[in-house]
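[audit] Reproducing an earlier prediction to check determinism. Same input, same settings, fresh worker. If the tokens differ from the archived copy the diff job will pick it up downstream; this log only records the rerun itself.
[audit] input (312 residues):
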Amino acid sequence: MTLRTAGIHHITSFVTDPQRNVDFYAGILGLRMVKQTINFDAPDVYHLYFGNEGGAPGTIVTFFPQPGARRGVVGSGQLGITVFAVPPGALPFWTDRLQKLNIQVETVSRFGEQLLRFSDYDGLRIELVEREAGTTNTWEWDGITAAEAIKGFGGGVLFSALPERTLHTVEHVLGLTRIAEEEGYVRFQATGDLGNIIDVNNHELPRGIGGAGTVHHIAWRAADFDEHEQWRSQVAAAGFQPTPVIDRQYFNAVYFREEGGILFEIATDPPGFANDEPAEQLGSKLMLPEWYEPQRDLIENNLLPIQVRKLR
């Protein structure tokens, strides 16, 4: 049986200053910081997670903030644009809010949809789109109510070095359905109601360079641990070389790089972010895996302090 992903699980990017990262995604966009932890492979670097009130799969954007990090270049081999979904009628609110907070915006269209485009403080490209589908986000912040709050991912735009190979992988390995084409783009739809619309730029683009202001990887959803093992087998059968299953505390992960150069991950929906702290306290303090707990004082002393704060 061929598996089909429900859509995006999370998107992870490199940025610079951790407080400015919190200011943008929690302070301006109104997402909840659902977890503050560390890069398990580099414990002197935060790993910050933002999403809806519970950090549900399909809503989670994550970051490795490192002051002084080398700047990257957006290009092929990356997710080039992250798209967030907001409720119908919410774009005027967001246009006004972003402009008042000195974020430059422009309106663009793709496949008949109007999108509000802007960049974060590190140059990551973001679009907001109005969508009916998807559970309402009840996390309210600084005048952002459920009628305007970001629900989660609308999807994203893949920039590929080999578009035809990426198109094949999205359709025949991940199981998305090709639903439309227009000049320069092919659109796919996954089975879920968030993070389910993926556009592939069908032109070859200059090669991207990893670094601050670029996406490190895009993760796709696996429903549970058993399905995750099946996903690893399916990816290997397609000719890729997936990593072993890696325990990331809040989900299990398998990584592989598709032929267009984009790093893909398959991530499990469970166990979620209440795995190590109560749901009502998510993101309120630094959480460490048990093997780093004896080094807590050293780790905390090496990290810059951060806080969620209003910016006006």
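[audit] rerun output stored. Observation attached for the diff report: Helices lie at 18-28, 91-100, 163-172, 225-237, 296-301.
[audit] end
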